[in-house]
Amino acid sequence: MLSLTLAGLELRNPIMLAAGIMGTTGESLKRIAESGAGAVVTKSVGIEPKAGHSNPSMIEVDCGYLNAMGLPNPSYKNFQDEIDEAKKGGVPVIASIFGGCSLDFSEIAGALQADAFELNVSCPHAHGYGAEIGTDPDIVEDVTRAVKSSTKVPVWVKLTPNVTDIKSIGLAAQRGGADAVVAINTIRGMAIDIESGYPILGNKFGGLSGRAIKPVAIKCVYDLYDVLDIPVIGVGGISDWKDAIEFIMAGARAVEIGSAVGNNINIFSEISSCMEAFLEEKEWTLDEIYGMAHEV
Amino acid sequence: MKPVNAVITKIVDETPTTRTFFFDTSFESIPGQFVMVWVRGVDEIPMALSYENAITVQKVGPATTALFELEECDSFGIRGPFGNGFELRSEHILLVAGGVGAAPLAPFAEKASLSDIAVTTLLGAKTKGELLFSERFEAAGKLLVATDDGTEGKHGYVTQLLAGIKNYSQIYCCGPEIMMKRVLDMVVPANAQFSLHRYIKCGLGVCGACCIDGLRVCKDGPVFSGDILKMSDFGVYRRDECGRQVKL
């Protein structure tokens, strides 16, 4: 009862793995697929191999996590085998890709075989990439259009919340031909070690994820649903089935889970079965709760 | 958790390449668990606790080199303990330690000995001066030694000592992966536990950088049963900082 069609992809349930989580190796993606995820999104891959920022690259803070991984990736040239291995998990595999310009993006999308692409124009702490290009609607539109013309599979655009108006970026992605938008990436943040005065993250600042950002993400999804014709995929601070329901009611057609996987690798099947039980009890369908908060 | 400030109280030169840093904070941990040691401004790296309030470090890269420059009263940050640790589950145990791999096994030997478990340790190193924690293993039970150059004990690898040992029901192993792979190939896999080393990025089980066959070394490990490793990339390849496969 949770199955759906999302921008051309058939999903057994709307609970997907977010980019950057367990997504570097085909085996780890397969493990998540086998643990019940409706689809898996890979770690973002770029043109050249990249080691990422120095550690600490992720720490737990009072209300969530701060991370600045720095887009470590083996390059798309070394990544098809991982996608192929991940495919053995039996669910769609979405390749998250990043670049410094539309040519980078289309080179990667043109070379990789995946079920869809998620464009990372939203990483908040990578110089020359991510949010540095994803805060400009013209560039987002241009990048999206370039990828659309280099691949036949669906293209999703992952948005940064570190903007004045996320709707304008979502609309730009839609103009560029995006099949869906994903909201939100992490919110820029920082923590300082008071024993020494050092910023704790190796990159000094990073992105906040986890519980704290859920209300922000809900509002972004709610706003995007209002203005877009294409589906919105919700991500940000989901740690149980109630959070997932909330996102869908806000207007998310599906959701992605990131940080919460660390402490609960079985979260996908748990959320699916609890969602099913909830819908059954309420005598609602997934379609009926989709965007419900806009109708009441 | 954010890093805890650990002030160095004592530094002990264990061998020409390894040094123990005692600090003013104690961690309750299961031997085999690890902590993330943050050398401020340089890097943060996974390390075994060799005592409840110490790490034993081999100088190998930028972070460990920076650690070696620290003195008493200097400090670094520590997060942890993380991971699962060795599971103590029999009456006669055999420890196989190679080089700095002795660091998590020495406190484990002491813990086992306190629970009246018979401990035999096979300790290997390149040369006599690099044998780490011999006295601690000797005090906890029986010790057999091998050195690559024959300057102490058996002339050869620690795995050559293994062939002659029969009286044990569980093996605990930590050392270079090639050595551990040799051990795995010589024993009943389900009766052996191995502590793995991988490039660890988040340490929280989230990013997946340390995965071996889908298993997170930082969260599902770092200690794995041999029967799990038997079917894996263990001893074949690791991944670099970019996530590329690198032959061991």
Describe it for me?
The complex is a heterodimer of chains A (296) and B (248). Chain A is α/β, with parallel strands linked by helices and 296 residues long. Chain A has a single domain (4-295), classed as Aldolase class I (TIM Barrel, Alpha-Beta Barrel). Helices cover 33% and strands 20% of the residues of chain A. In chain A, the strands form three sheets. An eight-stranded parallel β-barrel of chain A has the order 3-4-7-8-9-10-13-14, surrounded by eight helices. In chain A, strand 5 and strand 6 form a beta hairpin. In chain A, helix 3 (102-111) packs parallel to helix 5 (137-150). Chain A is globular. The two termini of chain A are 23 Å apart. The mean pLDDT of chain A is 96. Chain B has 248 residues and is α/β, with parallel strands linked by helices. Chain B has two domains: 4-82, Beta Barrel (Elongation Factor Tu (Ef-tu), domain 3); 92-247, Rossmann fold (3-Layer(aba) Sandwich), CATH 3.40.50.80. Chain B has six helices and 17 strands. Chain B has helices at residues 62-68, 102-114, 134-140, 158-162, 177-186, 226-229, and strands spanning 4-13, 18-23, 34-39, 43-51, 54-58, 75-82, 92-98, 118-125, 142-147, 154-155, 170-174, 192-195, 211-212, 215-216, 223-225, 237-239, 245-247. In chain B, the strands form four sheets. Chain B has a seven-stranded mixed β-sheet, with helices on both faces. In chain B, strand 8, helix 3 (134-140) and strand 9 (142-147) form a beta-alpha-beta unit. In chain B, helix 2 (102-114) runs parallel beside helix 3 (134-140). Chain B starts with a strand and ends with a strand. Classes of the chains: A alpha/beta (296), B alpha/beta (248). Chains A and B meet through helix 1 and strand 5 of A and strand 4, strand 6 and strand 14 of B.
